[in-house]
């Protein structure tokens, strides 16, 4: 990352990850008045959708889309979308080594886009990626204890929250050299 920042001080640094959203409500701790146990309605349906998300680590801007599955082809399409969102800037894309983030579908995207550089987090280190707190925040805000009667409404609200909420990230302060963080 240091080389990228030295070569492209105004380059775009994105961290990308995927998440699976299920229609069944996830439970977490919640405050409730004493003696009033909260009731969460659960759906017996097993509907689910995957989300591809990329966080711009300097600004906290999230770009996310739902997908019916996770594959190298969909990953390549999502990367192409990111390239269109930043049509001229060099991009450093940080990935977590998921099986669908490598493969023959990804190679042509790299060959055709010299301004794109991929870098991978160390294996089994999800705490390094700033995308994980984004997923946690949106789940807390939208899907934990949800009472959505329709799955598509849950998916729409999840996607809207991701794409319209600025997320706090201290990635640059933690991992970039201090002299390069003062942009």
Structure description:
This protein is α/β, with parallel strands linked by helices. The chain has one domain: 2-Layer Sandwich (Nucleotidyltransferase, domain 5), CATH 3.30.420.10. The chain is built from six helices and five strands, in the order αβββαβαβααα. Strands 3-2-1-4-5 form a five-stranded mixed β-sheet, with helices on both faces. α3 links the parallel β4 and β5. α4 crosses α5. It is globular. The C terminus is likely disordered.
What would a concise description of this structure say?
By secondary structure, this protein is an alpha/beta fold. It contains six helices and five strands; from the N terminus they run H-E-E-E-H-E-H-E-H-H-H.
Number of domains: 1
DSSP summary: helix tally: 6
* Annotated CATH topology: Nucleotidyltransferase, domain 5
What is the SS-derived class? alpha/beta
Tell me the strand order in the biggest sheet.
Answer: 3-2-1-4-5
Overall geometry: globular
Alpha-carbon distance between the two ends: 16 Å
Average the pLDDT over all residues and give the rounded result. Answer: 84
Strand content: 15-25%
Query: Quick one: biggest sheet?
Result: 5 strands, mixed
